[in-house]
Amino acid sequence: MTRRSFLSSVAVVPFLPSPPVVLPIHLLIDARAYLHPSQLHYFWNDMWPEAVSDLQHCGIQLDCSVEDGEVLRPVERQPVISGLRRDAINLVITSHIPEIWDNGLALGGVTTIYRGYHLCMIALACAHCHQIPFLSLNTCTHEMLHVLMQDIFEPRPPGFRGEVREARIDLYATRLWLFHDGNGIRQSAEAYLERVRPYTTKASSTPATAGKMASFGPM
Fold this sequence. Notes:
alpha/beta; Collagenase (Catalytic Domain); six-stranded mixed β-sheet; 21% strand; globular
């Protein structure tokens, strides 16, 4: 067989891009936060679209729901948050992080497992879009990466190890922002979804109820 006849006999298989990883996100707007219209405008028109675009660069598509909820802040106690879903990552939009979680640091966001719910809380008084590579990144992107890279399953390490983990997330966020490079994030996101699938499938068929408080670690 000649080279020409061999090549003509080989079927050409067109390249088909991988389907996106679909990530369920539940946006919960804190009705008790009295958010200023300018804060909400900044979130919906700048911060959130930027975060959505970041994740699209690594093949992650967000399947979003939006509703109002409430963040009650008892003194010296854990907050009480209503409207959460177990079958999605809950992105709670409020004004400030509760003091018992914030420790006076004026954080723009925290990520934790709260009473069995996977939760990212965004404080619009302090949150922002991408500003400085490696140092000041989109708050929504940063917090969601803590979930997708599966940091959420471990308390934040103390001291230097905790700072290293934050720097790792800021590195991933910077590469998404500047180079549209999501190497490793998609694979970790797929592993995260596979890890939580048995729990979210079961939860989606039953009403959401508050369970026992899980250990909290701001990220």
